[in-house]
DNA sequence: CACGATTCAATTGCACGCAACTCAATTTTG
DNA sequence: CAAAATTGAGTTGCGTGCAATTGAATCGTG
């Protein structure tokens, strides 16, 4: 299972050992990528019962906290842009979970509000959290500690460190 | 910044406190979701120079290890199915990085092999790893420890624990 | 007040990611 | 050996995700 790549470093002469991409199993990013998919697959059967996708569920989570938000506010909280959110919100509207109305004060904005159906869903969706919690299978403290590490890493990656673009 | 949700537990009477979805900031899954996107955004400018997407880069990483793989083998390693891989591999083929040939022994299978252009890319792509490494900004040991935790969690989520489906 | 810059939402185009399906090739089994 | 079951790759359809663009509304500055 533990692969050595000493042979590879010899065959490609022009590259120094350090600049050769690491094997897939060694990559932190791939672990995150895989875990993200695994979470999605875990959520899917739970959310299918409500006809929701995971990103749609995230929007509802945000709305259950704030009741009414502009598209921009939702995008800031979830890290998504209008290109993703506009059609998603249209579908949540069509499903009857939210309403979309132009803001009277600032007609550029659109207020996304929970409908009664959308509010009512919060109670039913409680099972989702408990199911996910048991699937994660670790203590709240552990989960929080892990979350803190991931958040810190996200923060670091999101800082526009120009030297990254080797242009 | 630290929100209390005691008020919410009172307004929705039919649900017990524990079964109400947690606020967005508390969710481990959302942290993974955000980190995955952050990684993607970090990789994008680096891979754009080669005309590659991150999943395409993952396929090449796998091929740089194995030289030749079937679609199934790539799918097993990356956790993707043919619905995702078939068109992706067709694009990698069109770009000249891989070749696709039916297996003589078992004509159901298609062998994906690196072209010379695909092999040559490995050396050039070395910069990507170093750039990502510096963006992550933590020691190899820390990265490995974090990866181990994420892998364990992925493993746990991937086990088909039937009780999850509350049917 | 006016005009240029900015902001917000929506749209378009492209590439995943996955479910559901098709079809051919192979394996199982009766 | 033949029929049934399984496997491997591809296709279709739908929902993200994001870059790039559009168009309307608002803001900032002169």
What is the gist of this entry?
The structure is a homodimer of 167-residue chains. Chain A is mainly alpha-helical. Chain A has helices spanning 6-11, 28-48, 54-66, 71-78, 82-94, 116-124, 126-136, 140-158, and strands at 68-70, 98-102, 110-114.
In spatial order, strands of the major sheet of chain A run 1-3-2
What is the helix tally of chain A?
Answer: 8
Residue stretches of chain A low in confidence (pLDDT < 50, at least 5 long) are 1-17, 162-167
CATH architecture of the domain at 24-135 in chain A: Orthogonal Bundle
Number of DSSP E strands of chain A: 3
Mean pLDDT of chain A: 86
Order of helices and strands of chain A: HHHEHHEEHHH
Anisotropy-based shape of chain A: globular
CA-based gyration radius of chain A: 21 Å
How far is it from the N-terminal to the C-terminal residue of chain A, by CA? 37 Å
Binned, the helix content of chain A reads 55-70%
CATH class of the domain at 24-135 in chain A: Mainly Alpha
Q: Structural class from helices and strands of chain A?
A: mainly alpha
The CATH homologous superfamily of the domain at 24-135 in chain A is named Winged helix-like DNA-binding domain superfamily/Winged helix DNA-binding domain
> Biggest β-sheet of chain A, characterized?
3 strands, antiparallel
Please report the two chains with the greatest interface, counting residues with C-beta closer than 8 angstroms to the partner's C-beta.
A-B, 73 and 74 residues
In words, what does this structure look like?
2 copies of one chain form a homodimer. The first copy, chain A, contains 8 helices and 3 strands; from the N terminus they run H-H-H-E-H-H-E-E-H-H-H. The first copy, chain A, has helices at 6-11, 28-48, 54-66, 71-78, 82-94, 116-124, 126-136, 140-158, and strands at 68-70, 98-102, 110-114. In chain A, strand 2 and strand 3 form a beta hairpin. Chain A is mostly helical. In chain A, helix 2 packs antiparallel against helix 7 (126-136). Chain A has a domain at 24-135: Arc Repressor Mutant, subunit A. Helices cover 60% and strands 8% of the residues of chain A. The first copy, chain A, has a 3-stranded antiparallel β-sheet with strand order 1-3-2. Chains A and B meet through helix 2, helix 3, helix 7 and helix 8 of A and helix 2, helix 3, helix 7 and helix 8 of B. Chain A binds a DNA duplex (30 and 30 nucleotides) through helix 2, helix 3 and helix 5.
């Amino acid at each position: 299972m533990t692969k050595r790549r000493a042979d590879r470093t010899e065959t490609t002469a022009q590259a120094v050992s350090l600049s050769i991409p690491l094997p897939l199993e060694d990559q932190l990013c791939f672990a995150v990528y895989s875990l993200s998919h695994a979470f999605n697959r875990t959520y899917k059967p739970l959310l299918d019962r409500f006809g929701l996708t995971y990103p749609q569920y995230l929007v509802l989570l945000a709305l259950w906290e704030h009741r009414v938000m502009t598209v921009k506010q939702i995008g800031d909280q979830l890290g998504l842009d209008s290109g993703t959110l506009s059609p998603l919100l249209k579908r949540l509207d069509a499903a009857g979970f939210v309403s979309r109305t132009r803001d009277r004060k600032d007609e550029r904005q659109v207020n996304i509000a929970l409908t009664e159906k959308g509010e009512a869903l919060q109670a039913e969706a409680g099972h989702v959290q408990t199911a996910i919690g048991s699937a994660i299978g670790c203590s709240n403290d552990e989960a929080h500690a892990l979350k803190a590490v991931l958040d810190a890493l996200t923060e670091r990656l999101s800082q526009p460190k120009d030297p990254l673009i080797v242009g």
